[in-house]
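In this section we walk through a basic example: taking a raw amino acid sequence and producing a predicted 3D structure, encoded as discrete structure tokens. The instruction is simple. Fold the sequence below.
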Amino acid sequence: MLGDLIGEENAQITVQRVVRSDHGLPPLVESAFQGTGQLLGVPVNDVGTYTGRLRPDGTLAGEGQGILMSPSGAHASWQGGGVGRFTEDGGTAWRGTIVYTSDSPEFAGLRGIAGAFEWDVGADGKAVGRIWAWK
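The resulting token sequence is shown next.
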């Protein structure tokens, strides 16, 4: 069951590149981003990278990873995966799941849960994300 909204973030894609694939698969598009927001009420800076691969049905398969840090030095790492689709404005909309690892007391509430996320990325690389606890 989806629980409470636990995080929100605004981010900007900083770099994108196309990575060649082997075995006849479509190439990957790798995107790096930086963002700021809050997670469990804690202000965070987020740095991450994700890849997307076009699937035969026109959707995207994606996975990513990153690191969060609060102004006080609390930190967490994350890994996620999901499905994306192209939007009419030339951006992408991603939906999926994310899990966190942290030994910082500020992020103790992330232990034992998965997050369900929505990330909407505009053609200009500006992104907005929301994460709900999935208990």
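Looking at the output, two observations stand out. The first strand starts at residue 2 and ends at 19. The radius of gyration is 15 Å. In the next section we compare this with other chains.
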